[in-house]
């Protein structure tokens, strides 16, 4: 729901980028110019660290996702669930309602939590500007579990995210749909948001398909609400029952059903892919970042020329400071897609 609109567009964009350059030459979000061979060894990060997903600027994906969630809620609970027969109607209200509410809470909590490392939280003053990282003095942002930008010791799995410009505890990835990093502090809220989205969208699609098919088989089954007793024309239908009945046409009901099912199926495919990927990671006890690193090592062993390139540019390509969206190289493995 909140995580899935425009995911296909982002996936296709990244697929195109991956075919324009190899996976190690991808355009990653930078905290400063990558002129490591020039005299400019100063990497200038954004002036201030982000607190959470509500820190300005909000990401376009985040806003569109919230709007799409609202659309699904209005269409589902305002148009199609009220058309179900009485017994199924209340069951749908209860089950899908719980899933939508659970998803909304989990998603908002995942946005709101500050995922920073514990020592960063203890010391951090978000109103103070971040220092400038000098690659002439230090090769990496984090060395020996000390971050030279946050100026604190951090946990063994902490990474410095360039988008948030702070060290994230048990870093997993930076999510554009949350506009926040996903780490140890909010990973389970993120996971619950994805899982509830998959179940909620799946059940909503079933409801809409039932209404669509039943319209052609036995439309009387969809007109059991008391408000339909005052409707004379068979082509006249009611939306937003029972609170605010609004007349509409059968064509309108069917058109919205087709559009919503198509969007829902596309998002369900991609969200299901995302859920399966994270179930795979949980089974392997890996984070997204660790999976990315492992995939790069694997490709290096298969491609000696690529391995040489990485060896020469390790401080550029693998430094966590340079990893903004933290997406691993594209692969043919169907589990290689996740929230960006």
UniProtKB/TrEMBL annotation:
Keywords: Acyltransferase, Membrane, Transferase, Transmembrane, Transmembrane helix. Its EC number is 2.3.1.225. Residues 324-340 have a biased composition (Polar residues). InterPro entries: Palmitoyltrfase_DHHC (IPR001594), PFA4/ZDH16/20/ERF2-like (IPR039859). This is Palmitoyltransferase. The chain crosses the membrane at residues 63-84, 90-113, 187-213, 250-282. It comes from Gopherus agassizii (Agassiz's desert tortoise). Residues 142-294 form the Palmitoyltransferase DHHC domain. Residues 321-340 are annotated as: Disordered. It catalyses: L-cysteinyl-[protein] + hexadecanoyl-CoA = S-hexadecanoyl-L-cysteinyl-[protein] + CoA. Belongs to the DHHC palmitoyltransferase family. The DHHC domain is required for palmitoyltransferase activity. GO terms for molecular function: protein-cysteine S-palmitoyltransferase activity. The keyword Acyltransferase applies.
């Amino acid at each position: 729901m909140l995580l899935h609109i425009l995911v296909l567009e982002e996936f296709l964009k990244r697929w195109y980028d991956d075919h324009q350059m190899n996976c190690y030459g991808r355009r990653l979000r930078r905290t400063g110019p990558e002129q490591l061979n020039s005299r400019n060894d100063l990497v200038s990060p954004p002036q201030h660290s982000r607190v959470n997903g509500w820190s300005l600027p909000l990401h376009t994906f985040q806003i569109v996702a919230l709007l799409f969630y609202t659309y699904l809620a209005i269409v589902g609970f305002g148009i199609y669930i009220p058309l179900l027969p009485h017994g199924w109607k209340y069951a749908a209200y209860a089950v899908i309602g719980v899933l939508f509410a659970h998803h909304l809470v989990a998603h908002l909590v995942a946005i709101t939590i500050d995922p920073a490392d514990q020592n960063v939280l203890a010391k951090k003053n978000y109103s103070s500007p971040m220092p400038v990282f000098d690659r002439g003095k230090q090769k990496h942002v984090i060395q020996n579990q000390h971050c030279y930008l946050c100026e604190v010791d951090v946990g063994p799995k902490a990474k410095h995210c360039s988008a948030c410009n702070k060290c994230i505890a048990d870093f997993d990835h930076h999510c554009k749909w949350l506009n926040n990093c996903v780490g140890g502090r909010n990973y389970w809220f993120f996971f619950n948001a994805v899982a509830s989205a998959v179940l909620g969208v799946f059940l909503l699609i079933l409801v809409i398909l039932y209404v669509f098919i039943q319209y052609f088989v036995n439309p009387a089954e969809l007109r059991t609400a008391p408000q339909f007793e005052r409707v004379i024309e068979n082509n006249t239908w009611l939306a937003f029952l029972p609170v605010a009945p609004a007349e509409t046409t059968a064509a309108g009901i069917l058109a919205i059903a087709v559009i919503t099912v198509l969007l829902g199926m596309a998002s369900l495919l991609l969200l299901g892919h995302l859920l399966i990927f994270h179930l795979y990671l949980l089974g392997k006890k890996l984070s997204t970042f660790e999976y990315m690193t492992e995939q790069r090592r694997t490709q290096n062993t298969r491609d000696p020329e690529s391995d040489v390139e990485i060896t020469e540019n390790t401080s550029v390509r693998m430094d966590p400071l340079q990893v903004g969206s933290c997406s691993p190289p594209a692969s043919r493995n169907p589990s290689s897609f996740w929230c960006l």
